[in-house]
Amino acid sequence: MISPVLPTYTRAPLSFKKGQGPWLETDDGEMYLDMGAGIGVCALGHAHPKLIAVLEEQARRLWHTSNLYEIPNQQALAEKLVEHTFADTVFFTNSGTEAVELAVKMARKYFSAKGQPGRVEIITFEGAFHGRSAAGIAASGGAKMVEGFGPLLPGFVQVPFNSIEATKDAITENTAAIMLEPIQGEGGIRPFGDDSLKALRALCDTHGLLLIMDEIQCGMGRTGRLFAHEWAGVTPDIMTIAKGIGGGFPLGACLATEGAASGMVAGTHGSTYGGNPLACAVGCAVMTEITSDGFLIDVSRLAGHLRQGLEGLVAEHPDIFAFVRGEGLMLALGCKVPVADVVNAGYGEKVLVVPASDNVVRLLPPLNMSTEEVDEAVWRLDRAAVMLERKLDCVNDKGLQA
């Protein structure tokens, strides 16, 4: 008999009743250190007092009116995002998937409005993850996401990860845009690197294409800059964000330059819930916190401390861990044993990490953890590795006896 909740997830036998900072508490009072932050969503940890305060205040005043009317909180958040980014305009969504949908529509509409309706193809990269909508799975192209869902939405051309030459070769008269995550998340925390981002920007400029950055996972301060592409000194034409912008409240956005958005006139897109007063009140509070003086400096400092600890784990447990990669507080531990074993061993030590492709575990902790909490997380991962080593020793002993 099917579960009342559609069984599309393989869920851990864990549930939590409350959280505080990087900690989650189960019904029976066990405390888990959350180094996944809800897959990078809880950028300021759980139950942040400033987010609670603005949400409670707004909830007592007004929840929803729809986008038929002006929404002051939405205007305020849009102004904050425009102030701190390349963008001239913002459309708010409920999720990253919806933001990607708009980015695809916007790029195609841009060329249609210019009298080039045939320019609809978007180049994407192997290992990408752009959500699970029809456009998102077509853009990503992964077998697990597309198998069994019928004909894929046309108009996406996938090239090998980080191959500038293959990207150049894929450009035709029908190409509208190049879309990428500056650091692939689900793909295994794989950074493109500054030189590649500059080269992709140059390709777009040379061929008159739009550059779409998907910063849903790597944005909102996670790398030590507000957005990851800033490290390379380049700017996109369109950018999708979500996850951290709501600090746990469902919120996403599609940001764009005035030029890239020029085809999106009244009636070309909409959302019933997107940018509602509740979500945007929280989003404003998140933006205020992350852009406050010294916050991103502290993120970089904390990231260095965490990376040092993880490098120590690789050195101490060479049969379990292979490498550390990533940027800021978006890091991956490469595993020599199945990644599921590492995640499960983490449960045993009450530390939560997130699996990803390429047999890595992701660490996407709250941006405002303390160094003591980071040390505690590394210690718990060390204990998990010791447990896995003991299992390996038992297997090896049995093999020798056989």
What is the name of the CATH superfamily of the largest domain?
A: Type I PLP-dependent aspartate aminotransferase-like (Major domain)
How many structural domains are formed by the residues? 2
The main sheet orders its strands as 4-12-11-10-7-5-6
Low-confidence stretches: none
Q: Strand content of the residues, in percent?
A: 15-25%
Shape: globular
For this structure, the CATH topology of the largest domain is Aspartate Aminotransferase, domain 2
Note the total helix count.
12
The helix/strand series, from N terminus to C terminus, equals: EEEHHHEHEHHEHEEEHEEEHHEEHEEEH
Query: What is the C-alpha radius of gyration, as a whole number of Å?
Result: 22 Å
Q: Given the helix and strand composition, which structural class is it?
A: alpha/beta
List keywords for this structure.
Aspartate Aminotransferase, domain 2, 7-stranded mixed beta sheet, Aspartate Aminotransferase, domain 1, 402 residues, 12 helices, alpha/beta
Brief rundown of the structure:
The chain has twelve helices and 17 strands.
Describe this structure in words.
- This protein has helices spanning 37-40, 49-61, 72-84, 96-113, 134-140, 143-146, 164-170, 194-207, 277-290, 295-316, 339-348, 371-401, and strands at 16-20, 23-26, 31-34, 89-93, 121-125, 156-159, 175-180, 183-184, 190-191, 210-214, 238-241, 252-256, 321-327, 330-335, 351-352, 354-356, 360-363.
- It contains twelve helices and 17 strands.
- The longest helix has 31 residues, at 371-401.
- It has 402 residues and is an alpha/beta fold.
- It folds into two domains: 16-34 and 294-401, Aspartate Aminotransferase, domain 1 (Alpha-Beta Complex); 49-290, Type I PLP-dependent aspartate aminotransferase-like (Major domain) (Aspartate Aminotransferase, domain 2).
- Helices cover 39% and strands 18% of the residues.
- Helix 2 (49-61) runs antiparallel to helix 9 (277-290).
- Strand 13 (321-327) and strand 14 (330-335) form a beta hairpin.
- Strands 4-12-11-10-7-5-6 form a seven-stranded mixed sheet, sandwiched between helices.
- The two termini are 42 Å apart.
